[in-house]
Predict the structure.
Amino acid sequence: MISTANAAMKAAELSQLLRKRRSLRRYHADAVPREYIEQILDAAVWAPSAHNRQPWRFVVISRAETKARLAREMGAKLRSDLTADNVPQAVIDADVGRSCQRITAAPLLLLLCMSLQDMDVYGDGRRDAHERTMAQQSAAMAGQNILLMAASLGLGACWMCAPLFCQSLVASVLDLPADWQPQGLITLGFPAQQRQRERDPWETRTIWR
């Protein structure tokens, strides 16, 4: 049994890790060591999941040519969408350029996907939609483990939701299995920036019943 003092120390260490983690987008050029990648992926699969079906899937992207193609294709889709929205050209150029730079400049990318292959199928829209949400929540929890383990290893990371807006395109570029559905793209590397962000107190987001 863990003593009260040891429990308090472990809680303090976890609290410190949670508070120091930030979304960092600028990295040094150094490659992320293979052992770090394996530790991060091992942490991811210990997340809780609905029915313990473990619907997460991961794509490790380190090759420059793959990052460049992914950035180029996603950038083209973003440009098309923003053009259809009548966004000013200067804003489009800035958004596309920023997205491409974040993808290509990161030493490592982890694409977080989900699969419904092992989830329950009920045959009615309401419950099947809930199964999908449960799979998404499970994948997101794996993503949180990735971010926390990365922070514990001294890495910077940032979760990009952009793949949600072009899932089929990302799947095609990376030649993913048919059931792998892209959810988020996590950039990783040794940080070349620091950020300080505050959080609203939990009391402002909580009700008691």
